[in-house]
Amino acid sequence: MYGLGILKGFRVTLKNFIRKPFTVQYPEERLKQAPRFRGQEFVWYEERCTGCASCAKYCPLGIIRIVTDPDGGDEQEGGSYKIDVFDIDQGRCMYCGLCVEACPYDALHMGSTFEGAQATRADLVITMEVLKERPKHPSTWFRPQLEQAGVDPFGGAPVEWEDAGREAFAWHPKRLQAESKSGPEGSPPASAEGSPPGGGGG
Amino acid sequence: MTLRTEPVVVSIGPHHPSTHGVFRMRLTFDGENIVDAEPVIGYLHRGTEKLAEERQYTQVITLTDRLDYVSSMTSNQAFVLSCEKLIGLDVPDRGMYLRVIASELQRIVSHLIGVGFFLQELGGFGGTALMYAFRERERILDLFEMLCGARITVSYARIGGVFADAPADFWPALRRVLDDLPGYTDELEALVFESEIVQARTKGVSVIDPVLAVNASLTGPVLRGSGVAWDWRKAAPYDVYDRVDFDVPVGENGDNYDRFWVRIQEVRQSLRIVEQCVVQIEPGPVRATDAMLFRPPPGEAYVPTESPKGELGFYLVSDGSIAPYRCHVRAPSFINLSLFKEMLVGWKLADAIVSLGSLDFNMGEVDR
Amino acid sequence: MGGPTGGLEGNAFYRVVYGVVVEDLGWEPWLAYLIAAMVIILIVVNGALALGTLYTWFERRVLGRFQGRLGPNRTGPFGLLQPIADAIKLMFKEDIVPRGADRLVFSLAPVVMLVPTLLVLAVIPFGKGSFLADLNIGVLYIVAVGGITTIAVLMAGYASANKFATFGSMRAVAMVVSYEIPLVMALLGVTLLAASMSVVAIVEAQHLPYLLVAPLGAFVFLTAISAELNRNPFDVLEAESELVAGYLTEYSGMKYGVFMLAEFTNTIVAGAIFAVLFLQGWQGPGLSWLGSQVGFLSFLDTGAVRQIESHAWFLAKVGLFAFVATWVRATLPRLRIDQILALAWKVLFPLSMLNVLVLAVEVIVWPEPSAGELGIMAAINWAVAGAAIFAAARLVSLSTPARGLGPVAAVEAR
Ligand code: SF4
Ligand code: SF4
Q1: Are C70 and A3 inside 8 Å of each other by CB?
Q2: I need a surface site. Which of A171, B256, C250, C339 has the fewest CB within 10 A?
């Protein structure tokens, strides 16, 4: 009553006048991104990819185009298809990450950048060549092995394909085997803290 | 002799600063008084329900992000709850707690923005309260980014839980936000709700009678503003809402002021819920199954949830295939608009804007 | 007629020019008057417009800080060149005149808006002995000329042929007409106290700032002037959340720029009026006062120092007003138009009457009050002001919903 409420409002604004501004002066300053940030620049490991096209199947928009050569690869168990085309149309991608979640061989990872403006829509389609050449800085989204290894997608060392997979993860059977041979160093799986992500359900 | 006057029809929107997106009001004015009002919707129609019918259940989660884009977490949650009922999945405790924490943080975001826009619509220049609300919202969105790598289109929930556990640095960050938020909420309340100008503008304006509100199936803060204590989190608790203690704030008069007052009180209740969840949550799996593809048995399921806007539910019909046969969204924003005319007629243009804002609807959800 | 009988006699700059032109060169006195007047007008008009442009920057920076952000900071140091960048942008914008608009009136409105703003400056003393004209009806002149801007708003709203613009201008007329009255009453209190309508005399009569002596008058004046300036909480003419941009909706390019410039310059001019009428104008303690008190500093007590510091005081007071105006804008939401009118007639009008009444009685008791007597008056007036505002808050409720037709009645009536 009596305008006291208005005066309280004035006090609040004055308090904020004295406070430091909370805005960030992009591009000189940047917000700290979380390691799980789902961004552009998909990281794709040619060596790991089998051409199974799970990623293409689970993309809600169907924007991953994979063409495999039926004669080129070794389709026996444990082998992989020869991939002719691997296009991701980033112009339509919504960075939901379902393709990454679906990939059973940990070949595809989310990237961490967000500044990918191009002059034409066609330039937004990233091809296999582009994917091969890109620096390998995978986001730790849906990749507990990277999270556990403390991978920093923003300026850390690039991740080699050998280290990107789930077999590098502490609880992976192969890893446990290897460690039990070499010595009892390997700690038992801390699966209480993180449910191991399974392969694609298909 | 009387001066002959005639009513003026003014089309407010679809491009107008305060219609919450591409919404159009056809208002008929007699001077400054509104004598007729008609909402025109459909400018943001994207066919979400139809799109959902040709996508697998997991893929539909990404569509729910885009329904109410200031509150994606609750939409995710509502959808996966219906799916889980359809499939008959039991969700591990930790998954449910994480979903509730995320949803309640999202509720805070949604209400803060609602209250921030409130002052903007009343005419506070450049939205001072809005900027304060955004400051807090940013911090919560940072938490979301830690959780799931995105700020708005989160897609955090998965059928059977959430996609992954929270990273270790999430908990201290959440603690800091929980410590700071009550103070900022007080500040916002002092700036907005104690101001006599705001009270003069909004008290007694666009009163919705409780009986009328129930009959028009209004839900959420709009209904509670009219004094009806109806909250799906209490009425039919989902996830872990039956294990936490919170109050359902209700308004007295059902006017614009009460509708917003309820929102800022709900921010406090949400903070209470998150605090309790942080204490109660225990280590364990977060996801019942890692499967991404489901073939639910034929049947139907509907789980009503309390989104920040009101009752949000997905009515799913399964024919046994990998995609829903029918997916109907009960969008609270859309149904809350049903008393549009009753709220606006008889008031002035300035009130119309605020009354519209007090519904706190979101065009992404209205048009779907 | 013709001779230098106007207000420039007291002007220091005029005396300098007079000395050179008439006494050294032996030219006609009217030539000295003309030269001095032209130079001063040039300085004043451009200075005011420059201050107005600077104020756009100032307000955006300060509002930014109030809202926890920085405001414009990219163009030049601290973003100081932002107004220039804005002006360049506006000049290159297409100047659209809507079909159905009254072209002449539409184009004329910005000018009609800007000119009275500058005219008011004629009677404002910017420093000791530094003014264009010392009209003996200065206060009346301010009120009369300042009222013209309403016509510009009406012209803009009518000529745009846009419903939002019409709404805005109709509100403007209703509001400004209502607020002129308390405004004039508040100024009446000041003229009573100073026993003069000359602005210079009012400044010189303020041994104590009239803000302290007549708080009620200052309150009414501030409220009414922010209504006249269309600033929060009375910015219903533009009301961006309701009327898009009110009477400016159809304006673009430099016409819009001129409107904006006029609006911001208006605030600066209002600050100047407030400074001279309520804040002692150019007066204030400074280096020269120090010089006259402390012996060894007496070299500071010169005319030049006094000139500079009187201008500085004036500018500082205008700046203070600008800051407070921005603060108000950052904090307060808008009132509804019917509440605005109710506030004018139910609250401000009686308050201003009371103010005049009390001051009139006091002036009878203490004609030509000295500083001490002004202090006694201040004590009385503060008590009266507190009681009056308390009573007004008790008695008048703005929140009574004012509606034409009740919701139900309206639905049935159709
Ligand atoms: S991130 Fe989502 S939209 Fe983009 S390619 Fe992967 S699945 Fe498709
Ligand atoms: S799902 Fe993984 S392995 Fe299969 S094609 Fe895609 S990137 Fe390659």
Answers
A1: no
A2: A171
Residues C45 and C75 grouped into a single domain: yes
Instruction: Compute CA distances B237 → B88, B242, B286, whole Å.
Output: 17, 5, 20
B72 within 8 A of B65, measured Cβ to Cβ: yes
Q: Side-chain half-sphere of C25: how many Cα atoms within 13 Å? A: 12
The span from the CA of C217 to the CA of C200, in Å, is: 19
Could you identify the atom of ligand 1 that is nearest to the CA of residue A97? 1
Same domain as C32, residue C53: yes
Residue B178 identity (one-letter amino acid): L
Mean pLDDT of C214-236: 81
Structural domain including C405 reads 93-413
Q: Which of C92, C109, C139 is the last residue of a domain?
A: C92
Measured distance CA(C197)–CA(C190) in Å, rounded: 9
Does residue C259 share a domain with residue C199?
yes
C66 & C118 share domain: no
Whether C405 has a pLDDT exceeding 50, the answer reads: no
User: Are residues C358 and C275 part of one domain?
Assistant: yes
A55 lines ligand 2 (CB under 6 A): yes
The Cα B236–Cα B249 span in angstroms is 17
C233 vs B197: CB contact, 8 Å cut-off? yes
Last residue of a domain, which of C63, C92, C121?
Answer: C92
How many independent structural domains does chain C possess?
A: 2
Please write the tens of the pLDDT for every residue from C294-315.
666 666 666 677 777 778 888 8
Q: Between A and C, how many residue pairs show a Cβ–Cβ distance under 8 A?
A: 39
Mutual angle of helices A4-18 and C29-66, in 10-degree steps:
90
Element (H, E) at B313: strand B310-318
Neighbouring residues of C81: CB distance < 8 A, sequence distance ≥ 6: C75
The finding on whether A43 has its CB within 6 A of some atom of ligand 2 is: no
| pLDDT on residue A181 | 61
Residues of chain B with pLDDT under 50: none
| Cβ within 8 Å, pair B17-C405 | no
For residues C9 and C71, membership in a common domain is answered with: yes
* Angular region, A2: left φ>0, alpha ψ -120 to 50, beta rest: left
Same domain, C220 and C273: yes
DSSP 8-state class, residue C298: G
Q: How far is the CA of A193 from the centre of ligand 1 (A)?
A: 27
Quote the CA–CA distance of A171 and A194 in Å, as a whole number: 11
In the Cβ-directed half-sphere of C349, how many Cα atoms lie within 13 Å?
13
- Give the rounded percent of residues in chain C with a pLDDT score beyond 70: 86
* The two three-digit tokens of residue B304, written as one number: 């009503």
Contact A88, A125 (CB under 8 A): yes
The pLDDT tens digits of the residues spanning C336-346 come to 887 888 888 88
Residues 6+ apart with CB under 8 A from A26: none
Per residue of chain A (202 residues), what is the pLDDT tens digit? Answer: 566 777 787 888 888 888 888 888 888 888 888 888 888 878 888 878 888 888 888 888 888 888 887 776 565 655 677 788 888 888 888 888 888 888 888 888 888 888 878 888 888 888 888 888 888 888 888 887 777 777 777 777 777 777 777 776 666 666 666 666 654 444 444 443 444 443 333 3
Residues of B within 8 A of C326 (CB-CB) are none
Helical H runs in C121-214? Answer: 138-146, 149-159, 163-194, 199-205, 210-213
The answer to whether ipTM exceeds 0.85 is no
H or E stretch covering B329: strand B326-330
Looking at the structure, tell me whether residues C239 and C314 fall in a common domain. yes
By CB atoms closer than 10 A (0-12, 13-18, 19+), residue C191 is: buried
Q: Rounded CA gap, C297 and C289, in Å?
A: 10
